[in-house]
Write a structure and sequence with these properties.
Blueprint lengths: L1 H10 L4 E10 L6 E6 L5 E2 L1 E4 L6 H13 L2 E11 L5 E3 L5 E15 L9 E7 L10 H12 L1 H6 L1
Parallel strand pairs: 1-7
Antiparallel strand pairs: 1-4, 2-3, 2-8, 5-7, 6-7
Length: 155
């Protein structure tokens, strides 16, 4: 997140439009991988903000490698989320309006590991057992995903 940190040095906590990618990574039981974040101790999808020059796909692949140690082999765009409902204020006071491209990934390689700087843990959840303590932007995206889970399971 070098770009965002550099930008914050100039503008402080004022609202910005933050573009990023999130990944709905599923296992063989169609459970969804979530990470428990260190910044606010909530559960979220793997993902993060875009660096200058990156595509949504490149951002998703980089974030999956950084946060979970895995390589994404095939990505399918589910939806792009944006708008007032994607506003978020981080615990440090930074304000953002997220624009997030969300991908479905069933095909990945590598062993899932925890990035100690960003996450406490990773865990697969059945869509009906998603924790209630979710990162606010992820709660909106996961609600949408719950509504299309049958399509996701069919692949």
């Amino acid at each position: 997140m070098g770009y965002i940190f550099d930008l914050r040095k100039h503008i402080g906590t004022k609202p910005i439009i933050m573009v990023g990618a999130g990944i709905v990574i599923t296992d063989e039981k169609n459970r969804i991988l979530l990470q428990r974040r260190k910044d606010n101790n909530t559960w979220s999808l793997i993902g993060g903000s875009m660096e200058p020059g990156e595509t949504f796909e490149e951002t998703a692949k980089r974030e999956a490698k950084e946060e979970a140690g895995i390589t994404l082999n095939k990505l399918e765009l589910i939806k792009v989320f944006s708008g007032k409902e994607m506003y978020h204020r981080y615990p440090n006071g930074d304000e953002v309006y997220n624009v997030a491209g969300i991908f479905l990934v069933k095909d990945y390689s590598g062993e899932i590991i925890v990035n100690d700087h960003e996450s406490h843990e990773h865990k697969f959840f059945d869509i009906k057992e998603i924790p209630s303590k979710l990162n606010p932007p992820d709660a909106i995206m996961l609600e949408y995903i719950k509504n299309i889970i049958d399509k996701i399971k069919e692949g």
